[in-house]
Amino acid sequence: MTTMEVLIDPTGASERTSDMTLSLRPGTLAGLRVGLLDNTKPNATTLLEALGDELRQRHGIGSVTMYTKDYFGTPVKDELRDEIVRECDLVVTAVGDCGSCSAATVLDGIIFERHGLPAVSIVSDSFLMSGQAMASLQGFPGYDFLAATHPIASLSAEELKNRAAELMAGVERILGAEVAA
Amino acid sequence: MNGPAVDTRSELALEADARGIRDVLERYQENGWTDGLPVVPVSESIVDEFLATSPLDPDEVLFATPHLNRELTVRYAAINAALAGCRPEYFPVVVAAWKGIAQEPNPRKGIWQSTTGTAPFTVVNGPVRERLDINSRGNIFGSGHRANATIGRAIRLALINVFGLRPHQLDQATQATPAKYTAVIGENQEQSPWPSLHTEYGFAEDDDVVTSFVVRSVMHIEARHTQEAEQLALDFTDSITRTGAFIHEYTNALLVLSPEHAQVFAGAGWDKDQLRRFIFDHAYRSRGDLGRVGKDAISHHARWRLAAGHPDAIADTAQGSQTPDRVPALAAPESVQIVVAGANNAGVSAVVEVFGLNPRLRPSSYSAVEYRTS
């Protein structure tokens, strides 16, 4: 006797919902308070500082504040997230250059977007797939983040400045920033 | 072959829609719901048979990774156990393995996304080994036993399917280990000269218990050359203290002794604690050995080994001790766990390299196997 039955999706995806809404974009970045979220990976601080400098020069942002995660492999803790949401208008987080921290960096961006803060997550391009997988897992397939040329950890300060300059077009795209023609 | 045609089909010979079955299996592959090997299709009535073996509520969460926004319920553990080819009666062992994994510090923090590439590794003790034919006696790390093959695979398939830990995606392992397909062994309690692993946690020999490890590798130790306990113990110790094992400040190991090797120690009057203590006392490298490979210090935050000249370097614990040139590989005797497994036919054992970031009382977690009694 043949009994036909429906086969089960073993992932549980059918029981989950997605939320692919970005936070509102400000238009101009002039005068805004920028949060930089350092995940403690080597060179993350220097890369973020260089990006802060670029944002200041190109967009006349109001202030830059550095925040530091306590563990790179998991997402930002709720208290730190709330502090950044309170004190900043947008956030840039880096650098996802390992298996767990690439995914966590992308998740940080999604968390801030869902809490109303435009966010730019930066991973190294060796871990692009990991970041994309995390976005899908979080119900945000296609979430836009930046993949910097690998490696980051071994770059000199000068090379990091160049890397930051290269990343700026992507930063402006994700933030929906008005760029002077 | 010549001669008259002989019908070799027995009355049990099956007919099936082989092409139809292949089409179904291809669909699973297309969806990525697999470790690469064919899986066994799962329907609601089959899941029910698995759930019926466990006393737990199907919605109870066995293992959660908050940062991935994912949790594994008993129901999804059952679906993936069926998918892996388990028989329903294996399911209580799968559940116990998940309970062990859930107590381990690193899986819930994302170790299976890591480039390191570790695998879950499960040791089963108790009469359940006989009931389910969980292999403990010969070819234990090899293929060929359904229970060993599918219980381990049930874990891996759920990691892939429920937690999205697919290679090249969320699983960023640089190389990983073949143990990722499956790694389940029974302890050969019957041919061990010592009390079994789970009795160290206070269980009786005939309790069913699962012990969960997170492992880097299974290192083959062929040592047929000696019947001297000290020589044999030093041979194992040398493999445990290879410089490659000095990744963090300390390492851990699971010694899987063949019955013959265990008997060498027992014959010399050593119990497991004595063997552990001996290995601990001898498991060190000289500061010079570590300096030659650039590992004579540790990083200040994560305590990874690196060269003393590195800008992030601080002194390791040994540096501040009475014997700064003697750098121990193990934080404590209990960093070495010991089980007996394999055939009683040769001096072949294994050092399983156990992943760990910080020293713990024991580098593993355990859970009793729970059955539904009705």
TrEMBL record, chain A:
This is UGSC-like domain-containing protein. InterPro entries: UGSC-like_dom (IPR057767), UGSC_seleno (IPR049831). It comes from the Bacteria. Pfam families: UGSC. Residues 7-176 form the UGSC-like domain.
UniProtKB/TrEMBL annotation, chain B:
It comes from the Bacteria. This is Thioredoxin. It comes from Citricoccus zhacaiensis.
